[in-house]
Write a structure and sequence with these properties.
254 residues; mainly alpha; Ferritin; 9 helices
Amino acid sequence: MNEWPEGAVEYVQAITDTKLLLSHRYAEWMLTGPSLEDDIGGASAAQDEVGHVRQLIRLLEQQGRETDWLEGDRELNEFRNATTLDTSSETWVEHLTTVATADRAAWYLLDSITSDDFTGLVEKIGEDEYFHLEYHDARLATLARNRPNELESAFKDALSKTLVFIGPVSYNTDSDPLVQAGFVDRSAAELRTALLSHYEKLFDGMAVSLDDVNREAPPPDEWDATRRRVENGVISQSVVDSLTGVQNKEFAVE
């Protein structure tokens, strides 16, 4: 295990917490999706994300993070998840746009890591993520054909916030601290471009425009690099209780 450069632990923590919250949001909808296929897909994705979190927690423990803290025994404002996952989605369209953009962004951040400590792990997680992201894109394409106005509105909000999670557009190859430290091989600016380009290609020729997505946020001087956001929002205590199994902790498998 190598000693990671400054900022790298928080970078991986943000990926881990986003995956932790993704597991919860997938689980919320795994019995209420529009079809049995969607329910099964959500359940499978939730299980995959939990497995990814366990592997990433192992690495974070080796960098000095305490196990209980990593598993949720912390203040609400100490979670580093993408802000889109702070609250539950009210509709299927909102849910799908939220998990699709957050899941893809977390994968882009993880896939950019070059540290030897992640050798093999990124490839394994990538095998799971391939199916997650293909499923999302297929469902998004269907919604773009059948409910374009609703999808466009939800996507404007989700994608704008997800770009903030990735980082400021000014963090290019010459200025992104983790690129300079050699921990990642792609800057926030490059990852933002990749995310936007992916969805522009997906919706090409469809009645869904990304013109209103905020491509300038976040302002670097307002961005919290630890929580990867500009807002002060947090997840609810009930979500933390669910993630940590507070109500039935005595039955947890050791």
